[in-house]
Write a structure and sequence with these properties.
Layout: H1 11-31, E1 44-52, E2 60-75, E3 81-90, H2 91-97, E4 102-105, E5 108-122, E6 128-143, E7 148-165, E8 170-171, E9 176-190, E10 196-213, E11 217-220, E12 223-225, E13 234-251
Parallel strand pairs: 2-5, 2-6, 6-7, 7-8, 7-9, 9-13, 10-13
Antiparallel strand pairs: 1-3, 3-5, 4-5, 10-12, 11-12
Length: 252
């Protein structure tokens, strides 16, 4: 991983990219895609998909791939809920690509679609791993009470990633969180559960990194670990990377 490099000749361009990215994500959240439409309120259709845990055992993988759009993932303290997925799609997208479909095969919740605004709620009755990809858009993940979470991978080509985690989540094993954007911003706010060792390492090619990790040990300029990272029975390893953009991370 490369360390932070300051290129003053690119600062204006970086800020422009970040601002445009933020505007894009906002539009995606409202419209469902970035195809320009002069109608400020284009006609849309809502879709809802829901399933209960039932007799399902083992770890569940949430596998989401979206070409354009906003993805919001939250957890609730509901042991019977497997998933509740709500989508808003422009009617022009439906005409071109058909209706979205959510599948559940081999303990994998699958959603692969072109353009939409997607809200996903997961329950507390099973363990989850997350694999989320979007080409243009944004991903927000909130890990709170009720979340039983293992490895997390979030990849965004152009857009933003926002990760929040409270100290009452249940970590499965010693998970790795891999957050990557090509152009855009990554925002992280993690309250580490008691007894869990932590490591965070961030990298940008052109842009900025701001890490606040009070009480953690600084390994390099952009790499911090808790003092018990090498001895804790459970750990979380978080890696955040962007080519052009910014990373802001707070760990407590």
């Amino acid at each position: 991983m490369s360390n932070y490099q300051r290129n003053t000749g690119m600062i204006v361009c970086i800020f422009a990219v970040i601002v445009v990215g933020a505007i894009t994500v906002g539009l995606i959240s409202y419209y469902g895609n970035t195809n320009w439409n002069w109608n400020p309120n284009p006609p849309t259709t809502d879709f809802a998909f829901e399933a209960e845990v039932g007799t399902i055992n083992g770890t569940i993988t949430l596998d989401v791939a979206l070409e354009t759009g906003a993805i919001n993932v939250i957890f609730v303290d509901n042991a019977s809920l497997l998933y509740d997925i709500n989508m808003r799609v422009q009617n022009t997208t439906l005409e071109d690509d058909g209706a979205p479909v959510v599948t559940f095969l081999s303990n994998t919740i699958g959603l692969d679609y072109t353009a939409a605004a997607v809200n996903i709620t997961l329950g507390s009755g099973v363990n989850y791993t997350l694999d989320i990809h979007t080409t243009t858009g944004g991903v927000a993940l909130e890990l709170t009470e009720g979340a039983h979470i293992g490895d997390v991978t979030i990849l965004v080509t152009t857009g933003a990633i926002d990760l929040g985690m409270t100290d009452d989540v249940i970590l499965i094993g010693s998970p790795t969180f891999d957050l990557q954007t090509t152009t855009g911003s990554i925002t992280i706010d993690v309250d580490l559960p008691s007894g869990i060792g932590g490591s965070v390492e961030c990298a940008v090619t052109t842009g900025s990194i701001d890490i606040s990790a009070t009480g953690w040990t600084q390994i390099t300029s952009n790499h911090y670990e808790t003092t018990d990272y090498d001895t804790a029975l459970q750990t979380i390893t978080l890696v955040a990377e962007t080519t052009i953009g910014s990373i802001d991370a707070i760990f407590t």
